[in-house]
Every structure is written in structure tokens, then in C-alpha cells.
User: Fold this.
Amino acid sequence: MGFHVLTFMQIFSLIQNERKIDIISKVPEEVALMIFSVMDKDSLVMASQVCTQWMDIILSSYKLTAQLKAAIKQFRNDKENKTSGFQKSRISLKRKRKQTECEAPRPSKKRNIRF
Assistant:
């Protein structure tokens, strides 16, 4: 058990000294795929941009490639929606809104009702 703690401390000191350690290239590709498969979409996009080796590992898996494409598509759509203007989307939401049965009618602004 002392050996494991010593090894952990050596690895930790290496990481503290050099923040640019590439653990993914040190492990087998199957392990790297397992690491990438538990990442959320944003982290997967960032990991794909680190280096070509990481991108190749991600693209070797059909599932990860599909997740990456979906994340990039969502990012582009979000970016387009932000640049198109908030006011336009707000107006379109107002037109589509209908009063449901469980929704009580709102008092008009002209009345000054206090409860």
C-alpha cells in the first residue's frame, strides 16, 4: 500500500510541476476511448481541439463522432440564435402562446388590485 501512495505522490508532483502532461497519449487507445466516452459534449469538443492524436482517437469511435458532430451543430445553432437578436425570438414566442385551462386570467394593467 505504501508503494501506491508513493507512486501517486510522484505522479501528483509531476502534474504540479508540469501542467502540460499528456496522459491520454500514455494509455492504450481503448482506455482513452473510455475516458472520452464519459465526457460531456462541451468537454468532448474541447478535447477534440487539443491535438490531432486526440481527434483521431475520438473519430475512431462512431458513438463519439456522432456526439461530437451533434455538439458542434448545437454550438453553431446557439451562436446563430444569439446573433440573430433576442427581441425577434421573444416576439415569436408571444404569438404562439395560448392560455391553457389551468392558467388563470391575468388582471389588466389598468386595474390596481391589491391582495
In short: Helices lie at 2-17, 29-37, 41-48, 52-59, 62-84, 86-96. The mean pLDDT is 70. Residues 51 and 57 are 10 Å apart (CA to CA).
